[in-house]
Amino acid sequence: MKDRTLLMIPGPIEFEPAVLAALGAPTTSHVAPDFIEAFGGALERMREVFLCPDGQPFVVAGSGTLAMDLAGANLVEPGDRALVVNTGYFGDRFGALLGRYGADVTHVRAPIGAAPSLEQVAAALSENHYKLMTVTHVDTSTGVLADVRSLAGLAREHDVLVVVDGVCSIAGEELRMTEWGVDVALTASQKAISVPPGLALLVAGPRALAAFHNRTLPVLNYYADWTNWLPILEAYEDRRPSYFGTPAVNLIWALRVSLEQILAEGMDVRFARHRSLSQACRAALGALGLEQLPLESRWAANTMTAPRYPAGVTGAELLPRVKAAGVILAGGLHPEIKQEYFRIGHMGPANGGDLLATVGALEIGLAGCGYPFERGAGVAAAARALAG
Ligand code: PMP
Fold first, then answer.
1. What is the mean pLDDT of residues 333-360?
2. pLDDT in tens, 302-341
3. Is 50 close to ligand 1, i.e. is its CB under 6 Å away?
4. Is the pLDDT of residue 1 over 80?
5. What is the overall mean pLDDT for the chain?
């Protein structure tokens, strides 16, 4: 029997064997010719995955929060106004981070499970001139998907920089930086990019770089300062040795492998596959009578699902039973309603078989908790959705 459980949380996720093999390869010097080639190649492929042909990619050792810092520290000067389109916990985090760099932060909020309307955001953009607007593409605390395309269109009308926290979206949810007018998109390696935790990834478009170059004050964060990283990244793309901070050599080898796999699948096919997994997951939950946190299906993410516990079932009872049945799921994260819901990740290499196994384990868990439902209905609904 395989001595492992299936990890179906919204990051870290399960990784491809070739990606893990790259991590286990002997570490080279960060200026070895083959590493320079791998890093340069990874940077080139980031532009393709982020769909931003004229963007500047950044790859820095750290987690997704560092990627948020790479945006905030370099774009904000004290006194700048920033608008946060808030759909949960990670919107709060972005607001706090921008405030730390001296931004005057306004949040546009919605009830938990909803996204602010375009009218609300348009009204906020008309009231003040903001330097930048952040949008969390998928807030991992709520599973709410934001309409980045329309929001970016609005911000552009007001000449506001658009920064997308795509930690739970990029390489899973459809995101087209250049076409949609997104100026910065950022993520972390451990989600749909499909590389173990440890890399902060960001692509800055031309308007964001111009705003950075027009700063009047120095960046208030030494490690995150683009001034330090730009010459290094340019050198790696030119296949020249260079150094500022030691790159995470093995993670970058692994990143290069994963980006190649992502591009081999093709971005459109990949977006469609994530949509299909999410539809199958939601079909299963519907058949089992479980509600979801996003209040409308247009707000439901494709990389993860956030079901509510049915009446009479708690996380403490359910999640260990699901784990015993072979699948690890995550509890709630939003501080106000943490106990009311759980989270299923289905991004990156996750496939239909993983999803069926997940729904099967969930059914075993629910049955163990005494929740009444038609046995097999969830698996059947997911299988039908996957086949359709
Ligand atoms: N933003 C979002 C939407 C996230 O889901 C996360 C992590 N769950 C972060 C930011 C922060 O990333 P990290 O935990 O890698 O610092």
1. 97
2. 999 999 999 999 999 999 999 999 999 999 999 999 999 9
3. no
4. no
5. 98
For ligand 1, the distance from its centroid to the CA atom of residue 172, given in whole angstroms, is 15
Q: What is the pLDDT of residues 165-181, one digit of tens each?
A: 999 999 999 999 999 99
- Predicted confidence at residue 2, as pLDDT, reads 76
Residue linked to tokens 């602010």: 116
166 lines ligand 1 (CB under 6 A): no
Please tell me if the CB atom of residue 167 comes closer than 6 angstroms to any atom of ligand 1: yes
Task: Check if 143 has its Cβ closer than 6 Å to any atom of ligand 1.
Answer: no
**110-124 pLDDT per residue, tens:** 999 999 999 999 999
136 lines ligand 1 (CB under 6 A): yes
Nearest atom in ligand 1 to the alpha carbon of residue 66 is 16
Nearest CA to ligand 1 atom 13: 64
